[in-house]
Amino acid sequence: MSHVATRQGQLRGSASNGVHTFLGIPYAAPIVEGNRFRPPQPRGPWDGVRDATKYGASPFQPAPPESAGSEWDVALAGEDCLNLNVWTPDPGAGGLPVMVWIQGGAFEIGSTAAYNGTNFARDGVVCVVINWRLGPDGFLDLGDGISNIGLLDQVAALEWVRDNIAAFGGDPGNVSVFGQSAGAMSIGVPLSMPRAEGLFRRAILQSGAAHHAIPAGTAQKIGHYFAGKLGVPPTRDAIAAVSTPRLLAAQAELKTDLISRPDPELWGEDVAASQMLWQPVIDGDVVPGRPLERIGGGAGAAVDVMVGTNTEDWKMFLAITGVLGRVTAQDLAEDKGVEGFPRLSAYGLPAEVALREYRSHYPANSPGELLAAVETAWWVRIPAIRLAEAHAGAALATAARTYMYEFGWQAPGLGAVHAVEVPFVFDTLDKNSRLFGPLLGPNPPQELADSMHRAWVSFASTGDPGWPGYDLDRRITMLFDTEPRLIDDPYAWERVLWGQIR
C-alpha cells in the first residue's frame, strides 16, 4: 500500500513493480443537490484515509460502441464522476514532470478506466488521467450564462493538479497536457482560454486541434432542441429534474435526428458537418473568441506545443461502420451524403474541386478512401497545420517551441487510422487492451512504441521531443513509422488547397 496526503485528506493507493497508483481521486464535488448541468464546485475534505485502489465513477454517457470493449464496465457512470487517477514512481520524490491525459470520445463517451499510466511512471513521469462531463452534462447551453461545463471540469482538474501533485512527487510548474481526438480538441481550446492560463507548460494534441468550437447561437439552438425532446422548459432546473435514463435516451434521439437530416439550416454548418451536437462553445466568457484566432494573437504563446495526426485518421469511421466499401464514385460526383456521413461539399470545398485534387494525388484510392482523405483533412490535418502555424508565429516573441508529427504505421486491414497511435504513446502494446488491442494486429512494432513513448516523455520533461521545431520555412514533421524519419512540408498541396477556406 501507498499513502499520500492531499489538501482534501489522506489517500491509500497501491504499489507494484516500483509504480504507485491512486485511483478515483475526487477533484470536485459530486454533481448532486443542484450541481448537475452547472459548473464544478469545490470538493470538501474527507475524514480518515480514503481508499484509492479502485476506479471512480465515469461521467454519464450513452452506451459505448461494442468495439470499445469492457473498460467502461470497470467504472459505472455516477454522480461522483469528477475524479482522476495518478501513477507515480515515487510519492516521496520531488520535481518530477507531470503529464495529464484528456481522453477523447467525440465529447460524448469516455472513461479513465480505458487508460493506464503505469509506463509513464516507470519512466519517471507522474501521469494523471481525468474524467470530465460529456454530452449535455458538459456542454448544454441555454443562453443563461452557463456553458462549457466540460471545459471548466478540465480546468478544475488542472487546478487540483497544481495544488496537490507535489504530494505525488510531481512538479506543479512542469505540467504537460496531452490528449487525443476530442481530448486534443479540448486542449486546443484551453490554449486560448484565460481561465486555463498558467495551469500547464506544454501541450500535445493528437488528432485534434483548435478548430472545433461552435457559435453560442448554434449551441443554444441545440440546447432548446434537447429540452423539446424531453418535453420540459429550456431551463437547467427543469432538465436536471429528468431521470438520467431519459436524458440519455433524448441525447441519442437528437443524434439520430441530426444524422438522418444533417441540414445546416437546422443545426448550423459546424454541427451539420461534424455531426457533433456537444462541443466547446464560443460564449464570449469561458471561450472568449475563436480559439485559433486567439492563439494566433498570442494566447498560449508561452506554452510548448506538439501537434499531429495519423495519416489516414478519419478512414477509421468509414471502416468500422462498413461504409468505406459502399461509397461509389457516383455518390461523390453527385455530392450525396452516404449512410450517416455528410455530403462531400459539407466540408467546405466544392465537390468537383475536392474530387479532382484528391483523385490526382491518390489515383489508386477507392471512392470511400477519397472521402476519408477529405474528412481527414477537414477534421484534423488542416486544423493541426493551422494550429502549428498560429502558435509558431505567436511564439516568436517567447521561448516556447512548436513541433509537428505524423503517425504513419499501418495497422493490419485498417491503415494509420484514428486512435491507433494511443497504445504506442502509452507503451501499452503488451496490455492487450480491449479498447485498442484489436486495432493493432498480432505483432505491432515495439520499437515504434519505444520511439513514440520516449519522445512524449522527453517533450514533457524538457520541451524537446528530439527533432527540430516547426517553422513556416521548412515545416519539419516527424513521421512515426517502422523507420521514423523527418519530412519537410509533407502536405504542401493539401495545405494550399484548403487555404481558401478559413
TrEMBL record:
Q: Which domain of life is it from?
A: Bacteria
Supply the EC number(s). Answer: 3.1.1.-
Cited SUPFAM superfamilies: alpha/beta-Hydrolases (SSF53474)
Enzyme's top EC category:
hydrolase
Q: Which Pfam families match?
A: COesterase (PF00135)
InterPro entries with a match to the protein in the record: AB_hydrolase_fold, CarbesteraseB, Carboxylesterase_B_AS, Type-B_Carboxylest/Lipase
Keyword terms of this UniProt record: Hydrolase
Residue ranges of every copy of the Carboxylesterase type B domain listed in the record: 3-465
What protein family does this chain belong to? Belongs to the type-B carboxylesterase/lipase family.
Task: Write down what this protein is called.
Answer: Carboxylic ester hydrolase
- Lineage, broadest ranks: Bacteria, Bacillati, Actinomycetota, Actinomycetes, Micrococcales
